[in-house]
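Title: Prediction job returns without error message
Component: structure pipeline
Severity: low
Priority: P3
Assignee: unassigned

Description:
Job completed but the reporter wants confirmation the result is attached to the right record. Sequence as submitted:
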Amino acid sequence: MLLGLLPLLVLLALAELGFRVFAPRAEMQPAEYVERDPDLIWRLKPTASGPYQTNELGLRDAPFRADADVRVLLLGDSVSWGDGIRDPRMCYPFLLERNLEQADPARRYEVINSGVPGYSTFQELGYLERHGLDLHPDLIVLQFCLNDVVERYGTVAAFGGDAQFLGIDTRASIGGPYGWLLRHSRAFEAFGRFVQGLARDREAYAVEKMARDTLSPELEDAWALALLELEKIRDLARQHHVPLLLVIVPYAFQLEDPRGLRQPQERLIRWASAAGVPWIDLLPAFGDEKRYPLFKDPSHFTVQGHAFAAYLLAPALRSILAAK
């Protein structure tokens, strides 16, 4: 039996050698603001100074005020983190905190900005489970960007995405023999990506394709998974008697036709209404705003966009906190 397997083993060894010599894996340095996390795949890197400075919680935020009267935990991605904004004090979470305190100067507010670039709902759920609830928030705000539905399929190996994102090896999140082979065998990785390519068209996961009446099976499955994770976030919040607010952030292309391109928002609103979760949709107000450019790229706010988002969100937060 061993002799019979010998030709196959030699063939596999030659294939592995060939891939290592002629198709070496490009090793990337992690982005200067992230590092590997064993549970969430990546997290913000502790930084003492500069534009990516983090506080004692490891977040791009002002120093944590443990003695605040009201704590708001913001779960989000690069939109909340402030992609392209050099000063985090110009990002909407910080501005929102200031707006809340100006409207209610008798109390101190702490808006905890846990946004991390590239995070999707599964990582926001993981952060809430492992860290967020330990901060004893009075309100949880979930900032939902449309790429929360699809981005993982291009950035996380466990979902068929790339081996590396922001310089972080995303294959580390895959366990078992499959994960070990994926991390250690170039031939196996190439074969796996070939099979994935046959089974999955990555172009199907474009955000723009979500703004349609009829979606592909890939997008329907992606939506189902994202909504399931939203359900788990809602359930966790309820178990700990913390209200949850869903904030739906638009994409820049939707401002061209806010009424005709709002299918993703409608789907989220239907879920939130059925789940008993209050929501605020930024698309109508953003679509009506003509004075200032609100987006610097397809999904990230300008300084004016951050200020406008904080202005829109403050009344909704005050209403929920007053009811509580």
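Comment from assignee: result matches the submitted record. The chain has two domains: 24-40+158-205, 55-150+207-323.
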